[in-house]
Design a protein that fits this description.
268 residues, alpha/beta, D-Maltodextrin-Binding Protein, domain 2, 2 domains, five-stranded mixed beta sheet, 11 strands, elongated, disordered N terminus
Length: 268
């Protein structure tokens, strides 16, 4: 039987390659250096009022821990709490109120021994910078010329819960509700007032401080609401508990304290 010349050539080529040392394997990715730390991504669920300060903290932390990537999910503490309870990816939780952290603790979602009270804030009444309404206290929220009063949605937004506490203490909650518009988090309330879409709004002092288009006309009366405490904790289901603890320790350090205080927070 006559042999196929093409097949013969292919066989000879294979023999030659074998004789020269065989095929070379190209690695799928460059090998890691023996002394380089493995990269870690931490998912941080944080109250919307912490947006600016957390971004600054992340930049400082990255300089000391380049192997750690911090990915933030900012929103209302209530929505973040529910996401964690429903299995959403989170290594740490920074809440704007104890209520949401208490709920996660009761459902055994916190890594033992990691919860701590980190910060304190204040609740204020704001108006657009060019407002001519002359508001000067929370009691002024009953004035008839007010059309839209921006509040946080009280079921899941801590600033909305504090706001309702204040209004109930003053005996004006039901009257204010008739003109209330409810934001999904404190930053939405701030944006509505800054844009003039609401006559006034209730936010944290730290949020008011970052927006030049609003001004504070009153601070919540002493004793009219629970202290605005920001607790933080590592989430029990985290795959990077040690790294999460490290970032939480950093957030409670003297270096972080200076950054928080620059943004108007009071450190615990």
């Amino acid at each position: 039987m006559k042999k196929n010349p093409i097949l013969l050539c292919m066989a000879l080529a294979a023999l030659l390659l074998t004789g020269c040392g065989g095929e070379k394997t190209v690695p799928a990715s460059p090998p890691q250096k023996a002394n380089s730390a493995p990269r870690v991504e931490l998912h941080v669920a944080a109250a919307a009022s912490l947006t600016d300060v957390m971004k600054e903290l992340a930049e400082v932390y990255r300089e000391k821990h380049p192997e750690v990537t911090l990915t933030f999910n900012f929103g209302s503490s209530g929505a973040l709490q529910q996401a964690i309870e429903n299995g959403g990816e989170a290594d740490l939780f920074f809440s704007a109120a104890r209520k949401q952290m208490d709920a996660l603790e009761k459902t055994d979602n916190l890594a033992p021994g990691t919860r701590r009270d980190l910060l304190e804030n204040a609740v204020v009444l704001i108006v657009p910078t060019d407002s001519s309404l002359g508001l000067s206290s929370f009691n002024d929220l009953t004035r008839p010329e007010l059309k839209h009063i921006a509040l946080g949605e009280p079921r899941g937004v801590p600033v909305g819960q504090y706001g309702e506490e204040i209004l109930a203490k003053l005996g004006i909650l039901e009257e204010v509700r008739e003109k209330a518009v409810y934001g999904s988090d404190v930053r939405q309330v701030l944006a509505w007032v800054a844009a003039g879409e609401a006559d006034c709004g209730v936010v944290y002092a730290t949020d008011a401080a970052i927006e030049p288009k609003v001004r504070v006309v009153a601070k919540a009366p002493e004793g009219s609401h629970k202290p605005v405490i920001y607790p933080a904790a590592v989430i029990k289901s985290s795959r990077h508990v040690d790294e999460a603890r490290s970032f939480l320790d950093f957030a409670a350090s003297e270096g972080a304290r200076a950054i928080f205080e620059k943004h108007g927070f009071v450190c615990k």
